[in-house]
Sequence to fold (666 residues):
Amino acid sequence: MNDFTALTGRLEELAAHLVAGAALLFLATDAAAYGNSDDPFYRAGLDSQQQRGAYLTRAGNCMGCHTARGGQPFAGGRRLTTAFGVFVTPNITPDEETGIGNWTEADFWHALHEGKSPDGQLLYPAFPYTEYTKVTRQDANAIFAYLQSLPAIRQTNPPHAIRFPYNFRPLLHIWRALHFTPGEYVPDSSKTTQWNRGAYLVQGLGHCNACHTNRSLLGGADNELAGGQIMGMNWYAPSLTSHLEAGSSDWTIDEIVALLSIGITDRAVASGPMATIIRQSLQHLSEEDLRAMAVYLQSISDSKSDYAAASAAPAPISAYSSLVHGEQLYQTYCQDCHGVSGKGVPGVYPPLAGNRSVVMASPLNTIRSILEGGYPATTKGNPRPYGMPPFQQILHDYEIANLVSYIRNAWGNSADRVTVYDVEQSRRIGVE
Amino acid sequence: MIQFILTVFFLIATTANAASDPPDDMAERVKSCTICHGESDRAEQHVYYPRIGGKPVGYLYNQLRNFRDGRRHYQPMAILLENMPDDYLMDIARYFSTQSLPKYQPERHSLQPDERELAEMMIFSGDSDRDIPACSDCHGRALMGKSPFIPGLLGLPRAYLSAQFGSWRNGGLVRGQVSDCMSKIAEKLTDREIIAIAKWLSIQEVSGNPEPAGSLSPALAQRCSSIVEVEISS
Fold:
């Protein structure tokens, strides 16, 4: 026994205390942030079907749309602004007059699977039944059982304000003939059980295609998960099938899972609406389900080898006064966090060099991030995220255009320069 | 022993290498706030943004939640706070409540003698005939607020103060908190009184701290009950 042994003994003891303390601290924080008494997903007395339903309701993020900002969970009233007018989400608590208290299991199934209300009326596809149709009857019943277990909230929401001619519901017959095929998910027997589970979640409850697709003039989603501007939100949901955008063919499964559950990885951060989806829904999914989704997502992405090497050379900074100006702005406002060479700080501040969301064809998300700033999703894995300041009150549109053009062409990045017009367009945000 | 020394050496070396990482503290995490609201040693960049350093913790926490949940309308704040849970907002509120007051350069507005007299009467005496309490009854004798919920009124630009009065009058700055508190008071004030009060407040030097918790009279606590219901954990 010498001093050193005694010291290590003390250190071990200290470490044990620290670990115990940290664990307690984590539990306390966790309880406050995610399991507080207001949390509708952790109520006592749910039977096993209702508990499964609670989990699936989270996977489908029903609460995200069916809750007004600052409003009662599931009581509806959230306004969804689209090109066709404003949709107001309905109350789906079991209140008999203002909610779905009078619905039967079969009614719920018809809504989810066929997009029809109990009286046979066709539902507007702002409710993503084009995706939810893939949910199995068993899962739909579990979700219904959970929703019926919620406290009934009496809340009458204002009617939709849909523009002519879209407010003429029978037109939906035509829309459905073009864009809607009812049918549960059919497993692909040539793939693994895990892949099929992932496909079921991504295509069905996860309704990823509701945003990650390009919509036709009539709002039909034709190109599965190939990316597009989100209706009414003015954010761009990147392609999940192209390696040039958010395709994950060169990501490991662990990395995909980390982004979906933590919200930030060494090379990417989920921002805008995706941060919200991670906070509300994805971070609460089981590791097993997240891995399944990752396996599926990885499999649907093309890879670099599918293309000839990109030919576009970066615009030389010194050749354009706008880029030189952009570089000065970068040094003044951005460099402190994102670094001299745009590498960021892993897991804290995202890199800009080599970041696909910076160089992808649409500069919209980069511009929006600079205009509005924001914090990544607050998750169990990232409980106190670092934030991006808003610059809309400091920088003029032409400055933002020059700055974005610069970061799209610095440090080996290569992408079209953006214009003041792009920035002006980006300011037209959907107001909730 | 050599192993121990090596371990210590590597620990130090690792720490030194990580020096370029951002500090793991609140100051670094609230850079998104301080870009507008100023750090304590920096003058504010824009007349509209209020100081938040040194304001009572409960007030700051309530405002953060009100912005996030759409009860107080200001879209840039709503977007910034979209993904923040209550306990993180509480950390932010606590951080700013313990910051020292930022340097405030009192604004220069000329007040006519009768304007000054009017402002001082409303601020320190109120008008009981019209059921208007003195500002100082709730916001403290030094007008630096009362812990934990009532904000201070000094160190704020006139443009900001006027805008708040306007918002209170037009249906309540904070929806759902209109019972008989600030929106009712603002409705009763005349334009002339509001201009005089905002000018007077914005030209004062700032000093002092919020009065301690419990100093609000029961009658006024009752009157403004909608803002004093939040539990503050220490």
About this structure: Confidence is low (pLDDT under 50) at residues 8-19, 40-45 of chain B. The radius of gyration of chain B is 21 Å.
